[in-house]
Amino acid sequence: MLEIRNLKSLETLKKATELLKNDWYYFLWEFLREIDENNDELMVLLMLDNKNLLITCIHSNKDKLPKISDIYYAANIFENEIYDYFGKPTINSKNHILRLHNHPKNYFPKRKIGKPIIKNKDEYIFTNVKSKWSVKVQVWPIHAWIIPPAHFRFTCDWEDTINLDIQNWWIHRWVEDYFENEKSLENLLKASEEIAWDSKIAHSLSFIKIIEKSSNIKISETTKLNRIILLELERIYNHLWTIWAILNDIWQWYILNWFLEIREEFLKLNDRIFEDRLLWWVLNFWKNNIYLDEKKSKKILKTITKINDRYENLLKISISSTWIYDRLYTTWIVKKDTALQNSALWIWARASWIKTDSRIDDEYYENIKLNIILWENWDCFDRFNIRSEEIKQSFKIIKKVLKRLEIIWFKEDNNDKKINLTNWYYIWKTEWHRWESLHLSYIENWEIKYYKIKDPSFVNWTLLEYAVLNNIIADFPVCNKSFDLSYSWFDL
User: Which one of 131, 195, 226, 438 is least enclosed by Cβ atoms within 10 Å?
Assistant: First the structure.
């Protein structure tokens, strides 16, 4: 559900944001849209009880932006993004640089119509922490895994970390620009699957839902149920990968490969049922390209039944291990107040006892009773347990959906539906293993004129800077895996 409020001035927008925070609205997003040579539109997205509120203001592109980060600290990183992309600073603020690494120093990649306010960008200034025994440790430029480059600069006082500066997002992939310029919806659907290799279903489904919503297309219950199964299968194999990575970083080789073996079982199942291990090209507008039948459903049920007991035994071994408990318990704590201040999402929120799950407000899951899994010790052990319990819940959800499908096998609507986009703002969140893929589109003259994607890692890296305090650098790998954050753009 999306409510939109168009306000007349930037000052009014800031005051409205402050009032909404007092009403317990949760901050999700801040972004900018170019309108013409003289005007921009600032948009702030908030959430209350899984209902979204978008407040917007069309203003002169010569105006400096209000500092929303004075109200919601998490807005700081979005203000830096606007500064870096559009050359628009906030009032009374020295904006930091997010990425300068693959384009000229004073180039503003998303400013295409108007002119930037600032002419010269400053270099990124790392935090200077003064301490008698402090030492700086840099992790740079290539990390241990074969992943995009990252820059972590630790400041330590003896063994304790007292500060961490993070510089990521070195690669600007022009994904949003492609969505705004490509006219073929089929090509855009393919592009949505390529946003992140581990979330083809989540990202493409967010895009599909926007197109279906803007065209007022009603899909059948069979299609919805098939899509739920795809989402949960994607959630399972990704959570298993993260659990494996956590155990790998605390040297639990005697058990970690068993989790990897279970993950491989699900990837093989994907290949047998949907003809691709990572579920490529299964979804389509108003329908799916591949549907479950009775034979395929039995294969899924058989796999889950076979794996369930083995998985439960593995969890018992893991949780009862004093080594695993000692390495994860009280390691890299994010308390509830810190999580709220930084607008924490999904597992980082739930491990800090913040109740959130986008599936509650998703029409696909309206007849499925969800258990929002919470933990309250705020540490790596909690994040491990939440992922473990999420997998068990996904098993139950898939079983429920398969039972429902048995009743409606032959009720599929195969009639073609016309896609006629309607002018307006559209937003969709799809819950996945890193919380949700959040897509916003503005349609004008029956075409996509603006497209914005938010990945959960973008805002949650700031939480890592809090979690590291008073911990040793040696614990950084396991904490990093327990957060499961992306180094690149849009959670690649």
Answer: 131
